[in-house]
Write a structure and sequence with these properties.
alpha+beta, elongated, two-stranded antiparallel ribbon
């Protein structure tokens, strides 16, 4: 139980240090950007449906073997059969992602990654949540808030 709790705390602490990836268009509200992304994903799902592909890794027989101890007493262990493995994937997953990305670019968005703000910067800005995407500067960074929200800082 303690291990799980400490693992969860470590993950949350690390999440605050991770960059933020998002579709960006200056001046647009965060909710509008999310709605546009959802619409593009729905369109991509219609245009590029799931194409399930199943690969089969054949089963094999592992023959019996003789195992001897230090006294020279040997025993024969029986062979066994390893069953085949079936791996199912969506062959169109990458193309669907590209179609969604194309849709977003056609709407004027670009996909960006903002680095996490340094601790000194994060401590100096008042706590807030970004609701409208600001003009970005080369020093722009992100502060992650509790509850999954974030704030873009443009020093």
């Amino acid at each position: 139980m303690r291990y799980t709790t400490s693992l969860a705390i470590s993950f949350l602490a690390l999440a605050g240090c991770m960059p933020l990836s998002l579709y960006y268009k200056e001046g647009v509200s965060v909710q509008t950007a999310r709605d546009t992304e959802t619409s593009c994903k729905i369109k991509a799902a219609r245009d590029v449906p799931v194409r399930t592909v199943t690969r089969t890794i054949p089963g094999r027989f592992v023959p019996s073997r003789q195992i001897c101890d230090a006294n020279g007493v040997c025993q024969r262990r029986g062979g066994f059969y390893l069953p085949p493995e079936f791996i199912t994937t969506d062959a169109n997953e990458g193309l669907r992602k590209e179609a969604s990305d194309l849709c977003m670019r056609q709407q004027g968005y670009e996909f960006i990654r903002l680095p996490a703000c340094k601790q000194t910067v994060a401590q100096t800005v008042p706590s807030a949540t970004t609701s409208r995407l600001p003009k970005l500067t080369p020093q722009a960074c992100v502060v992650r808030n509790q509850g999954g929200t974030w704030q873009i800082v443009t020093p």
